[in-house]
Amino acid sequence: NTVIPPGVKDKWSAVTLLVKDKKANTTEEVTVPLGDELTIPDSKLTIKIGVFLPDFKMSGQIITSASNAPNNPTVGIKIYEDGKQIFPEEGDWGWLYANFPTIHPFQHEQYELALKEGVKK
């Protein structure tokens, strides 16, 4: 259950992701508005950008932001391959953590995704 505090909800407009192609050994920075989708060129992957929490905090079943400061930037995403959701396997969102990119990462043979930062309005 994700709760976005009022002081956070209207302050952020997008996120900047790092998209790494492991085969080509390239990393590209891509900025995507919240609520939009990103299709990775020459792949069958589509990333749906959900909520951005600048200061991710989990308390019991509630996921929220402890403040509006980017202390623990996190974005909720869904990833589809050929139209089938592959990340997360269950639950509403898979999370990318800017400060902890190895926590529950998206696993794919060719691509890695990381959150660089949130973009303020």
Structure description:
With 121 residues, the protein is mainly β. 3% of the residues lie in helices and 53% in strands. The protein has 1 helix and 10 strands. It has one helix at 6-9, and strands spanning 12-21, 26-33, 37-39, 45-53, 56-59, 62-65, 74-81, 84-87, 94-97, 111-120. The strands form 3 sheets. Strands 3, 4, 7, 8 and 9 form a 5-stranded antiparallel sheet that branches. Strands 2-1-10 form a 3-stranded antiparallel sheet, with no helix packed on it. A two-stranded antiparallel ribbon has the order 5-6. Strand 1 and strand 2 (26-33) form a beta hairpin. The longest helix is centred in the first third of the chain and has 4 residues, at 6-9. The mean pLDDT is 95.
Which features characterize this protein?
10 strands, 121 residues, mainly beta, 1 helix
Secondary structure elements and pairings:
Elements: H1 6-9, E1 12-21, E2 26-33, E3 37-39, E4 45-53, E5 56-59, E6 62-65, E7 74-81, E8 84-87, E9 94-97, E10 111-120
Antiparallel strand pairs: 1-2, 1-10, 3-4, 4-7, 5-6, 7-8, 7-9
From the N-terminal CA to the C-terminal CA, the straight-line distance is 25 Å
Give the strand tally: 10
Radius of gyration: 14 Å
- Averaging pLDDT over every residue, what do you get? 95
Strand share of the residues? over 45%
The helix-strand sequence is HEEEEEEEEEE
Question: Helical element count?
Answer: 1
Stretches with pLDDT under 50, minimum 5 residues: none
Question: Class by helix and strand content?
Answer: mainly beta
Q: Please bin the fraction of helical residues.
A: under 10%
* Biggest pleated-sheet summary: 5 strands, antiparallel
Give the overall shape.
globular
